[in-house]
Design goal:
This protein is an all-beta fold and 149 residues long. It is built from no helices and twelve strands. The strands form three sheets. A five-stranded antiparallel beta sheet has the order 1-9-6-11-4, with no helix packed on it. A five-stranded antiparallel beta sheet has the order 8-7-10-5-12, with no helix packed on it. Strands 2-3 form a two-stranded antiparallel ribbon. The chain is globular, with a radius of gyration of 17 Å. The termini are far apart.
Length: 149
């Protein structure tokens, strides 16, 4: 089976109810369960904050597959697939999208909004300082400045 460059998963949402009168008091979004076939087993989970109008990356992980879920604000995951084509995956804290970027695929996280965005990131390999697992990339044939205008 050939691994995809990236995937977008629509996640499960469930209304939650008050214990006294059963009125709807919120929602629960399932990001990962140990029996889901989305992530084998996350070895690292962290929160990534992106300031307004900023871009993190682009870079490529040599060994790690990363999974992104926007928990506050807005994000665009800009992905360059193996054929050089760019994909702009938009998500916000109101959507239930989990974006997977496979190892060896270049990507950037963009915050197009005027507020800080917070993104929950899960990875199948834990990051270690100075492990040289990440490589900075330039998207020379893509106009990253369009997100700063």
């Amino acid at each position: 089976m050939q691994k995809k460059d990236f995937s977008v998963f629509q996640l499960e949402n469930h209304e939650t109810k008050d214990v006294l009168d059963s009125h709807i008091n919120g929602e629960l979004t399932v990001i990962w369960r140990n029996w889901d076939e989305i992530i084998n087993k996350p070895e690292m989970i962290y929160l990534n904050s992106v300031n307004p109008g900023e871009i993190k990356g682009p870079h490529r992980h040599k060994n790690r597959t990363s999974y992104f879920f926007c928990i506050q604000g807005e994000m665009i995951i800009l992905i360059q697939d193996k054929n050089g084509k760019y994909h702009e995956i938009e998500a916000n804290s109101g959507s239930s999208k989990l974006v997977s970027v496979s190892n060896g695929i270049s990507a950037a996280i963009i915050n197009p909004s005027n507020d800080i965005s917070k993104i929950l990131v899960m990875a199948d390999i834990a990051w270690k300082p100075n492990d040289n697992e990440m490589e900075n990339i330039k998207f020379d044939d893509y106009n990253l400045n369009k997100w700063k205008e």
